[in-house]
Write a sequence for this structure.
């Protein structure tokens, strides 16, 4: 039976330390592979450095979750969202959480219905939805929704060494 | 400060395939970009887990029409590791020939699309005209233009007889004449240089941090190329990565252009070695397998990764495919913030995104 060489099994709790050590040693994250396994999941994280490969394996029991490795590898959010969506693996601490809608295949109401005046309107519109409602990613706990918003202006930098305008000690 | 979130795509004139970017803008400048997928997701990984190993091969070739040879070779290599078989030298050389010809046609296709995106229609037409000569070579050697179905588990399904070599060499000569005609419009064109220079810059450290692959990484000074691992016939046909350091859309264009020349050289050297080389085309692979294996190849867009898990059933338990574009999508996180909205199409196109691969 062929098994992956250079594969180390770690616990989900020990994953971040192991990944951090590889990141420190300049290993590149190739990807992760998730396999539904004994009512839970087996996840392999694949790393490469100078044409050498190394793998970390964790087993996540049903009801458990895998920690996000995004703190060490910023690009991991895509494969982690994919594992959450396609294999159902809960991933905790995602920097960008697509909430199961990385793959935006349309699953809302389809077809046409009669509107209030008997006109034909899309079932989607009748439900008060647009296709953009299908996915609103959450970044750092904040929804990124199409449209225009005003974000608070940052306080003006102090020029007199006594704090920003309006602050105690600053210009009135 | 007013911020506007604009959905870029999934339908956009510069996109041949659907992808959406949620672009957050301040005035005309992008400050954040989040990719969204799934508009043509096909579930091929899941389908591959229901079919026998040999029937998965034509399925996985259809992940992508452009780099179908790459998917077939990557999957076949993983199965061959599981089976513990070594493929004949003739098959390794044949795989290399068709694989490198695929890279030429893929890069020419991309260069034409890039020309179209920057309004250089003559470049688009010229590249695709030369690409037709490459597709003619596929037709002459495999009977098909794009999905050529030449790979078999354990080797190759088709051979290139010595009697066909003069025809193929004449075809390669025609491709090289066409490339020589285009070269002044790619490397010597001020219009191309001014439109692409400084667009979508990815510094080397960012490319390494994000794990970018292929020409996108090499254009940022990262000398990585899976062909150095020696798969197929690359143990006897070594490759030096083509590296540029600009990190912008122009550097990515130059890398792909120089790689075309390198692939033409590899095609000719593979043909030289195939001449009068005896031997079988394939080794038998048993229908039931145990274990797990990974396989990597250097597809035209970068590292293509396969993981196959076998539990003694007549079909794989898991087939995992990580395509180059899936790795390179992370580049939008870095190269789009700070970019003018008008440059987003060119910047996105410069990583040669393949949504057919990504939406496997």
């Amino acid at each position: 039976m062929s098994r992956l060489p250079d594969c180390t099994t770690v616990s989900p709790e020990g994953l971040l330390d192991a990944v951090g050590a590889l990141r420190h040693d300049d290993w590149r994250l190739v990807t992760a592979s998730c396999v539904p396994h004994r009512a839970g999941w087996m996840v392999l994280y694949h790393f490469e450095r100078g044409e050498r490969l190394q793998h970390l394996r964790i087993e996540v029991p049903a009801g458990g979750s895998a920690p996000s490795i995004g703190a060490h590898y910023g690009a991991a959010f895509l494969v982690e969202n994919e594992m959450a969506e396609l294999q159902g693996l809960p991933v905790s601490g995602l920097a960008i959480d697509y909430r199961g809608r990385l793959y935006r295949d349309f699953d809302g109401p389809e077809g046409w219905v009669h509107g209030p005046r008997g006109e034909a309107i899309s079932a989607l519109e009748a439900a008060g939805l647009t296709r953009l409602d299908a996915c609103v990613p959450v970044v750092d706990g904040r929804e990124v929704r199409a449209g225009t918003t005003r974000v608070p202006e940052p306080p003006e930098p102090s020029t007199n060494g006594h704090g920003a305008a309006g602050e105690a000690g600053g210009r009135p | 400060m007013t911020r506007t979130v604009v959905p870029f795509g999934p339908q956009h004139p510069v996109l041949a395939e659907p992808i959406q970017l949620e672009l957050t803008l301040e005035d005309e400048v992008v400050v954040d970009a989040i990719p969204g997928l799934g508009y043509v997701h096909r579930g091929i990984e899941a389908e591959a887990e229901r079919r026998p190993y040999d029937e998965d091969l034509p399925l996985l070739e259809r992940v992508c029409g452009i780099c179908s040879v790459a998917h077939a070779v990557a999957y076949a290599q993983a199965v061959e590791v599981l089976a513990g078989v070594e493929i004949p030298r003739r098959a390794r050389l044949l795989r290399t020939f068709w694989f490198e010809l695929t890279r030429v046609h893929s890069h020419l296709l991309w260069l034409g699309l890039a020309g179209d995106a920057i309004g250089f229609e003559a470049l688009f037409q010229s590249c695709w005209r030369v690409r037709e000569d490459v597709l003619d070579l596929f037709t002459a050697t495999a009977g098909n233009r794009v999905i050529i179905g030449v790979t078999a588990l354990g080797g190759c399904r088709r051979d290139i007889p010595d009697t066909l070599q003069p025809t193929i060499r004449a075809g390669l000569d025609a491709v090289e004449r066409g490339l020589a005609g285009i070269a002044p419009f790619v490397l010597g064109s001020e219009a191309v240089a001014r439109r692409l220079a400084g667009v979508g810059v990815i510094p080397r450290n960012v490319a390494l941090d994000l794990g970018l692959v292929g020409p996108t990484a090499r254009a940022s000074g990262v000398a990585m190329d899976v062909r150095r691992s020696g798969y197929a016939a690359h143990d006897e046909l070594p490759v030096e990565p083509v590296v540029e350091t600009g990190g912008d859309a122009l550097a990515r264009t130059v890398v792909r252009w120089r790689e075309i020349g390198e692939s033409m050289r590899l095609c000719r050297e593979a043909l030289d070695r195939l001449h009068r080389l005896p031997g079988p085309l394939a080794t038998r692979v048993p229908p039931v397998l145990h274990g797990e294996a990974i396989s990597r190849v250097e597809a035209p867009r970068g590292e293509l990764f396969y993981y196959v898990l076998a539990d003694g059933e007549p079909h794989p338990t898991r087939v995992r495919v990580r395509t180059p574009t899936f790795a390179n999508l992370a580049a939008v996180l870095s190269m789009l913030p700070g970019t003018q909205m008008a440059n987003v199409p060119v910047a996105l196109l410069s990583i040669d995104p393949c949504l057919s691969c990504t939406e496997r």
User: Anything to note?
Assistant: The helical segments of chain A are 15-24, 76-87, 123-126. The CA atoms of residues 19 and 72 of chain A lie 7 Å apart. DSSP finds three helices and twelve strands in chain A.
